[in-house]
Amino acid sequence: MGSESSSLRRRRIASFTPALFAVILLSLLIIGRYTENGLMELTPVTYEEKSLPNIKSSTPSVTRSPHRKLLNHQEVKEKEKEKEKKEVVEPNRIWSEKCSKSDIVISQGATEALPNGIPTYTVEIMNVCISGCDISAIHLTCGWFSSARLVNPRVFKRLRFDDCLVNEGKPLVNGRTLSFQVFRVTVVFRSSAGIRYVRPYYFEFISHAKNRWAGKTIVDLFADEFKGGLEIIMYVSAVKAGRIQVDGKIVPVSYVVQPSQKISHFLHRHEPPVMARDVKILRTEPDVVTVCKPASVPVHPCGQYRKNTVVGILQAEHDLAPIFPIHRLDRLVSGLLILARSASKADSFRQQIESGEVKKQYVARVTGVFPEDEQVANAKVNYNAREGKSTVEVENGPNGKSPSKGKDACTKFTRISTNGTQSIVLCEPITGRTHQIRVHLQFLGHPIANDMLYLSECITHRSVEGLSADRAAAKSTVPIKPSHSEVHVPHSTDEPDEDFNIDPMCTNCPNLAPKGYDGDEEGLWLHCIRYSGPGWTYECPYPEWASLS
């Protein structure tokens, strides 16, 4: 029995020996990961980073980013716990965990042109707030017509800086392609004969394919949908040269467009000129800026205008950005313009305007002797966007009524002075319809004296003869004939402009102004002088033409 039991024990031990050796070996492997000071740091996981394109840059220089190792989330938590235990602060940490715009290093400059001739401007951004911590490093590259990829978006959700708006102000997402809008870098103004020009620049027009565009070739799409007076061969050349792209890629002329695709058209843009008058800053406050807008200059980018605007000029010449206009002024109207310095302040102003708490005052120079007592034009205004003109609805139907297409509009007028031929009138619009003051003055028989759109000799003549203003306006069918001389706008300069490169594919080059521009830049005799609301008033000086002496 004794020999049997010892033999059984030996067999059992022998059967457990391989498992025991395995346990010991595993323990040794685990123990091998330890040191006297505890658990060693795990080797950081390396994420392969694509190198930046090899581009030659001019002053200021654009540097390449070094390879970086990014730690995963678990490793970061372990490192933070270790630091809390040892109470050790990283030597390169500048301040706390939060960063500000001032902790961003930006290298930017003009870079080598693309193969298709389009120049580029590159911006590199590096976050140095925590220079010793790789995981918080941000590095972007942007160009006029290219995109960049975000390496790591841990610190900043939104970032604005001088020449680019990152991701159109939307939250940054890791791995997504970012879009950039370059604004200030190409603004070069020139003045000639009292006219302000913008040096022609490259611009990317973006559209997203509609369902009805699906199935068309890229060339047919532009020939059918974007009728800009160009021959089809121009679109073929643009596609081949990469001036027309789909989803950021160059495509063949036979490419068939699919719904929702991004269609980009890169053009050498020539903006119409404006009168060379300064945008005078009247008042600067922490959240509001008021300016005196010159006539002929649009308030914000619209139509063919982008940089030759009040917003563009203030950004380029006074470094005011972002700014938000809180009310409208027609392009040919001058005077007070209020701009908020934040979106929230702009919304506050707009709410006051919409609720009727804001009083607006303009001054106009009109034809004839305006009545001495206060006049109120309470007539609906209908704006025709195709014609760019408003009309007043009058009661001329069988029951004294006409079909209602216009919107309610009311304007008060008070004569300030007269010389027997023309009058200076204070205008107070109660509502805010397009061209309301102009069309209401026409309705009363006293249009603005240099308003070629609404100045009709027959209305003034009939009102003088005793015909009521509303009947005169209703029966008038005589077309308006301009009587003033047009301002001559030169289409080329005598002296060469080193900043102006001729684009062989541009139909407007070598002209500064776009071809076909009529050169009519005379401002209206209509000027905004005052806006006032609950607890605030902003004013603008009267214009020179407001004096009849």
From TrEMBL:
Residues 53-84, 390-409, 478-497 are annotated as: Disordered. Gene3D superfamilies: Pseudouridine synthase (3.30.2350.10). Residues 287-442 form the Pseudouridine synthase RsuA/RluA-like domain. Residues 54-64 have a biased composition (Polar residues). One of its GO terms (molecular function) is pseudouridine synthase activity. Residues 72-84, 483-494 have a biased composition (Basic and acidic residues). The chain crosses the membrane at residues 12-34. One of its GO terms (biological process) is enzyme-directed rRNA pseudouridine synthesis. Keywords: Isomerase, Membrane, RNA-binding, Signal, Transmembrane, Transmembrane helix. It catalyses: a uridine in RNA = a pseudouridine in RNA. Belongs to the pseudouridine synthase RluA family. This is RNA pseudouridine synthase 7. It comes from Sesamum angustifolium.
